[in-house]
Amino acid sequence: MVDDGTRGEADEREFLAAYDPHAYAPAAVTVDVVAMTIRAGEPLVLMVRRGASPQRGRWALPGGFVRAQDGPGGPADPDLPDAALRVLAEKTALPATLHLEQLGTYGARDRDPRMRVFSVAYMLLAPDLPDPGPGRDTAEVAWVPWRDLGHGGTARHEPAFDHAGIVADAVERARAKLEYTSLATAFLPPVFTITDLRAVYEAVWDRPLHAANFHRKILAAPGFVEDTGGLADRGGSGGGRRPRLYRAGGSAALHPPLLRSAQ
Amino acid sequence: MVDDGTRGEADEREFLAAYDPHAYAPAAVTVDVVAMTIRAGEPLVLMVRRGASPQRGRWALPGGFVRAQDGPGGPADPDLPDAALRVLAEKTALPATLHLEQLGTYGARDRDPRMRVFSVAYMLLAPDLPDPGPGRDTAEVAWVPWRDLGHGGTARHEPAFDHAGIVADAVERARAKLEYTSLATAFLPPVFTITDLRAVYEAVWDRPLHAANFHRKILAAPGFVEDTGGLADRGGSGGGRRPRLYRAGGSAALHPPLLRSAQ
DNA sequence: TGAGTTTTTCTCGATCTGAGGAGAACTTAG
DNA sequence: CTAAGTTCTCCTCAGATCGAGAAAAACTCA
């Protein structure tokens, strides 16, 4: 049975009262972006050196507040992905092609000492990007190797807040999705070789793969890559046969998957 | 270079000013729970009939506001999973064993007509639960088959707000994770048979599987299940050999995976 | 011209898969 | 008690797939 009338209105009154800004201490909704790329076989994450306390001088993920409503600072973000792209664009130039996917939301009580902050983390994958110039309100922006951002241990740059954990979640997500999706092409320009693709897998998984078997499996997976008909120019050092050029195929899922555990 | 001093303080002032409750219209953070179970081979989701407008009388996911701070309504939620379990416990009794995982956060501008709402959705998997009694502020709570909640089309119960999409995301997540993880055991009691496990896969994937090959693959995946040494009592209708009893093994990832595309 | 490099194809034994068959263990009907 | 039916478990086998290595193809550089 539907309980209508008074109960219903009470529910709605409760909804609005519970979020009367005067009744509760403030809580913020932010987006943080784990922007990943691969440069010379090294996986990198875009990090921002904090210019303000707390945690001044430490690396943090680029992020910012979600604009919930139109206000003096600008129009509202229509959706969360818009907010993610907006805050990232304030730190660096966005590439023409990118893959953006939501990673998760972090809201532990004491993750930020100033107030209760709920951060929606996004993972952004892009081909190698130019080095960013300093943003307008940030002291320093840089691409930092994944391996330097680990939890404790040998990490050279311990990130601020819980951002080390967020980066670790992004790295694990990327490693897993390379197994059963065609996500690896998001790290590459529109046209690439099978060797380029293998270099992505080797960089992300941090282990060598058998070139001949990789080649066979990629071409056996329907819709992963499609032949452009062209060959690379080459002429670089080392010599070797000119590789064929491919572009990303239409399918998002890989059948059969490429398993990390396998060779 | 670290830009310290004035810039840093300005940054922090901006942080606090931007979320001065008086300066901005309110935005809410809620949790919505997609609680899933399987009863008699039918996958079900826990839904709540809305007692208040808007969308009065339609089915919605159980959810509620995240308590960002201690307040008159109770103590703050230490983290988002705590909030998810709290709001679900207000609607139904929680099972002894459950799997809770974050699904994603939904924040499109017009998803709720009353105000800007950011909803962190959680997926909860549990063994078959008793039917819930009506909660204290809800007209009706029921387990509804997945297939009745689809977007448009033949759906018999069109859910409120964007909850059809959230359920669809949860269903797809569950289907995918059954391939690569031992998640299926979350739908089963502590002790189960291989046939019970196969029934979970068949219900979630909505297609029959070859019993003999399924049996072989489950036992070949290290750490998926472990033999308890016991046999089922049986005595039910139909007869048949008494099946062995297993419990969930320690490993979370399945190697090799069980692919949906395969038989 | 020849050595070295990289890409691509081929080979082969081992393993895995899908499909069906059949034995084992049990219930129920007669 | 026997026979028929059901369910669980194991076996078989042809075909596909995999890992590892060899080798051919195509190119650079000295």
From TrEMBL, chains A, B:
Positions of the UniProt region annotated as Disordered: 230-250
Domain Nudix hydrolase per the UniProt entry, residue ranges: 24-167
Protein name: 8-oxo-dGTP diphosphatase
Lineage, highest ranks first: Bacteria, Bacillati, Actinomycetota, Actinomycetes, Streptosporangiales
Pfam families: NUDIX, WHD_NrtR
InterPro entries: NUDIX_hydrolase-like_dom_sf, NUDIX_hydrolase_dom, WH-like_DNA-bd_sf, WH_DNA-bd_sf, WHD_NrtR
Species annotation: Nocardiopsis flavescens
CDD domains: NUDIX_NadM_like
